Amino acid sequence: MSKYLVRGNYVGDGVKGLMQEGGTKRLAAATAAIESVGGSVDCFYYAFGDTDVFGICDFPDDASAAAVSLMISASGAVEVSLTPLLTVEDLDAAAAKTPSYRPPGG
Fold it and tell me: Cα(80)–Cα(8) distance, rounded to whole angstroms?
């Protein structure tokens, strides 16, 4: 399983729905969507500021993560952004690789 940072912003009727249903029911709906593709929710937080919702979720693959993101975004009630998360071991493996690269103009 791969971990993702999930960020969401309620828009339009999504804000009204959140106010009517409350955070617990919206978490249950998000969890059901994620579990429907074989994923799970590690944590889920509401916040003030530029982002309304933060979550850490596990997905079995990128396609499953994208499917949930597309489904939720298509509702028009929530804007979703996914960021793949790397373990320290993933970063160590990346740092050990030696790709070749020529910068622009170089």
Answer: 5
Nearest to 81 by CA among 65, 68, 69: 69
Helix (H) or strand (E) holding 74, with range, is helix 62-74
Q: Give the DSSP letter of residue 7.
A: E
CB atoms within 10 A of CB 10: 18
Q: Could you report the per-residue pLDDT of 13-65, keeping only the tens digit for each?
A: 999 999 999 999 999 999 999 999 999 999 999 999 999 999 999 999 999 99
For residue 46 the two structure tokens come to: 């509401």
The domain limits of the chain are 2-86
Report the topology of domain 2-86.
Alpha-Beta Plaits (3.30.70)
Q: CA nearest 12: which of 80, 76, 81, 68?
A: 76
